[in-house]
Amino acid sequence: MNRKLKVLMSGGGTGGHIFPAIAIADEIRKRFPDAEFLFIGANGKMEMEKVPQAGYKITGLNIAGFDRGNLIKNIGLPLKVVSSLAKARKTVKEFKPDFTVGTGGFASGPALFMASALGVPIFVQEQNSLPGKTNTFLAKRAKAVFTAYPNMEKFFHGTKTYFLGNPIRKNIITDLIESDAAKEKSGLEKNKLTILSVGGSLGSRTLNNAWKEHLDEIIEKDYQLIWQTGKNDYQNILAETESKQNRNIQIIEFIKNMELAYSAADIIVSRAGAIAISELAVAKKPVLLVPFPFAAEDHQTKNAMTLVEKNAARMVKDTEMKEKFWPTLMEICESENLRKEMSANLDFFAKPNAAQEIVTETLSTLNIKF
């Protein structure tokens, strides 16, 4: 291109929408260093902080989702939608983007709808195996939809759909190391089976309760446990397990070097958020998924089932933890052949080059040379 490329991005509400949008923008900027970017987010949501931290401009819409739990809160929703559409229209007209990429979240709807209405090509990136309502609606107007799971065409009739994966943190791709070296670096013993438990950045009370219940058995089996508790339960768990803490049991509030923890683990126990699963697939460690049951449209259970159907994971629901958690975990721990098989099957979902391939396909569709 002879002139400066201008790209409008929209995605927010959760890290699962924000970080893929930033990763795609980073990849475009790598190819077009002088490209100009503008993000559209929702005021009061985490993108208004995270996007500027990543070095991009963002403008906010006063938009919110439908509150099923408190219907009275929805009284002002129609006005918010109308004002958001008006601001999105004004933003698109003033910025004049060459194309727009949306990764889901409240602001994506008005942003991509108005971009499309004004003749700007739009692209949708869907992280989950069950698409959100916003992305399903927008896909009808999109040039292409990029998914993290196969066989998603059934949700996006008539729109080109590409199974390219979720963009994930670069260091998960580049900094994974051999398991023994990672255990040594983490202060663990090389020859002991190591379980990593991650419940998202805030932790998971379901997982925390499970480990409290079975900590004696973990110690008895002489397994090692890297237990990420999250902020809310950390101090209580430290106090409750004080007599059981040793080198084998590492209790951590938040894991900063996730690539090291993934590398050290022989088995991972995790929630089933879209980005977590994409990282787990790249790490290729056998995984027990415990989906968060209150995610929108129960999409975490759908994500987990997609892996379970290919024998790339095991799943236990929150409601089944008492009966099934420990036996399912032991099934994985006690069978090296099963662990190898699950790791090999995870490779189908591993898409370490997702951001590059999404950008390549976008530019190719628009015949933009790079």
Automatic annotation (TrEMBL):
Binding residues annotated for UDP-N-acetyl-alpha-D-glucosamine, in chain numbering: 14-16, 128, 169, 201, 255, 300
SUPFAM superfamilies noted in UniProt: UDP-Glycosyltransferase/glycogen phosphorylase
All copies of domain Glycosyl transferase family 28 C-terminal, residue ranges: 194-357
Keywords associated with the record: Cell cycle, Cell division, Cell membrane, Cell shape, Cell wall biogenesis/degradation, Glycosyltransferase, Membrane, Peptidoglycan synthesis, Transferase
EC number of the protein: 2.4.1.227
Keyword Cell division included in the entry's annotation: yes
Keyword Transferase: yes
UniProt catalytic activity: di-trans,octa-cis-undecaprenyl diphospho-N-acetyl-alpha-D-muramoyl-L-alanyl-D-glutamyl-meso-2,6-diaminopimeloyl-D-alanyl-D-alanine + UDP-N-acetyl-alpha-D-glucosamine = di-trans,octa-cis-undecaprenyl diphospho-[N-acetyl-alpha-D-glucosaminyl-(1->4)]-N-acetyl-alpha-D-muramoyl-L-alanyl-D-glutamyl-meso-2,6-diaminopimeloyl-D-alanyl-D-alanine + UDP + H(+)
Membrane topology: Peripheral membrane protein
The protein's annotated pathway: Cell wall biogenesis; peptidoglycan biosynthesis
Alphabetical list of InterPro entries matching this protein: GlcNAc_MurG, Glyco_trans_28_C, GlycoTrans_28_N
One Pfam family of this chain: Glyco_tran_28_C
GO molecular function: glycosyltransferase activity
Main location: membrane
Localization terms from the record: Cell membrane
Glycosyltransferase family 28 N-terminal domain segment(s): 7-147
Alphabetized NCBIfam families for the sequence: murG
Function of the protein: Cell wall formation. Catalyzes the transfer of a GlcNAc subunit on undecaprenyl-pyrophosphoryl-MurNAc-pentapeptide (lipid intermediate I) to form undecaprenyl-pyrophosphoryl-MurNAc-(pentapeptide)GlcNAc (lipid intermediate II).
Similarity field: Belongs to the glycosyltransferase 28 family. MurG subfamily.
Name recorded for this polypeptide: UDP-N-acetylglucosamine--N-acetylmuramyl-(pentapeptide) pyrophosphoryl-undecaprenol N-acetylglucosamine transferase
Organism name: Kaistella yananensis
